[in-house]
Amino acid sequence: MMAISRRLTFGAAVTALACGDIAAPVRGDLYEWRLEAPSIPGPGLDTLSFHWDRNDLPVRVWVEDTDDLPGHVARALDVWESVFLYREFEGTLVSDSTTADVIVLRGAAGPKLRMKRLHSALAPECAGATDLDIDVANTELRLPIRVFIDPRSLPDDPGIESCLALTTIHEMGHALGIFAHSPDPEDIMFADPEVELPSARDRRTAEAVYHTPPTLQVVRP
Amino acid sequence: MLRPYLIPALLLAAGPGALGAQTDYYARVGVVGASTLVRDVLGTEISVRQSIAPMVTAGAAMAISPEYRAGIEATLASGGFDAEQNGGETALGTIRTASVLLGLDGPIWRSVRWRAGLGGILYWPSEDRGIFLQGGPVRFLAGGGADWRRPVMSSWDLMVSARYDFHRFTTDELERRGFSQAQGVSRVSLSVGLARGTR
């Protein structure tokens, strides 16, 4: 009996060693990332989702060269790229704003035309906003996406650098397709972000964005 | 990180002198193919696979009895890997692997010999990102195969080899994200080269 038992144990161990596969985690605990916009013609709301297609990568980002904004944006792109396991998103800085998919400007957002505006980071040190130009039928996203980073205090004020860093990551989160705010202050996509990096929930939400069919198609000028 | 590349060179350099006349040493080139590295589900199933990769192998073996030899074999391979979902593929970069097997070989029939061994495999990605964000893993490896040799010069043999090895793959980044267990990865290689030493 002992010999049979040993053989069975050995066989079970070999089978477990050889046959078990990696088990992917269940990605629950997300927040709503889609943008709600009035249906045209009404009534009701359309739920709009977007992600950059693989053929659009790397997303071309032009940044106004002031207040170390290019450095903050480059880091924000690295941070968001590292969120993904399978290269779903990549961005690169470009020097020609006329070919950019995303334009990042210093200062407060200007007058809103027919754009959807996502306000963020209402800290005393800095603020951010992202403008999305979506057509009235809610099917097209006209490029470029415009991001505004507004340092509201002097460059050497304490807290300004970290505020710019996390606000830039937050706004680039909108630019990659997270069009809504998290209700949880522990997420970088909280409306007034406090944390410095995307949380596990931000990461799972970003993954969901890139593995859900988009309702918006990009249109270049 | 260059150390894996030094192993075959050291083996070749050490072969004729230090290990003496009882030592058999060889080098081969070939190709290696591997099964799926990672299976994931994000909406639909995603598979991460390595492409068929060129490889170079070097090894040495010493007689421990009239029929059996103990040896070491090191293999380097470098190739692309990609993620496949819904029929579309995304290139994820390049992976180099370095593996070392310590093992035994013995006769099967005429010029054909079996080989079996245990060792390790190091994954060395070109970029620390995605599933390799926290670097490449080192995993235990078990393998075996067969060698066929035919004399082509006074002291050199043509050597043709087939190998199979198995290890379980995961990375620190996958574990951090909640992946459990590890993926069984099988590799098969075919290679050809030259061997020198005992016959």
Topology:
The complex is a heterodimer of chains A (221) and B (199).
Chain A: H1 2-19, E1 35-38, E2 45-48, E3 59-63, H2 69-83, E4 91-93, E5 102-106, E6 116-120, E7 126-134, E8 140-151, H3 160-176, H4 200-210, E9 217-219
Parallel strand pairs in A: 3-4, 3-5, 5-8, 8-9
Antiparallel strand pairs in A: 1-2, 6-7, 7-8
Helix pairs in contact in A: 2-3
Chain B: H1 3-18, E1 23-34, E2 38-42, E3 44-50, E4 53-63, E5 69-85, E6 88-109, E7 112-125, E8 138-151, E9 156-169, H2 172-176, E10 183-196
Antiparallel strand pairs in B: 1-4, 1-10, 2-3, 3-5, 4-5, 5-6, 6-7, 7-8, 8-9, 9-10
Largest sheet of chain B: 8 strands, antiparallel, barrel
CATH architecture verdict of chain A: 3-Layer(aba) Sandwich
Q: Unreliable runs of chain B, pLDDT <50, ≥5 residues?
A: 1-5, 10-19
Order of helices and strands of chain B: HEEEEEEEEEHE
Tally of DSSP β-strands of chain A:
9
- The tally of helices of chain B reads 2
What is the count of β-strands of chain B? 10
CATH fold-level name of chain A: Collagenase (Catalytic Domain)
Shape annotation of chain A: globular
Q: CATH top level of chain B? A: Mainly Beta
Question: Please, what is the oligomeric state?
Answer: heterodimer
- Which pair has the most extensive contact? A-B, 24 and 33 residues
Distance between the termini of chain A: 79 Å
Which structural class do you get from the secondary structure elements of chain B?
mainly beta
End-to-end Cα distance of chain B, whole Å, is: 36 Å
Q: In which range does the helix fraction of chain B lie? A: 10-25%
Structural class of chain A: alpha/beta
Taking strands numbered 1, 2, ... along the chain, how are they ordered across the largest sheet of chain B? 1-4-5-6-7-8-9-10
Give me the CATH architecture of chain B, please. Answer: Beta Barrel
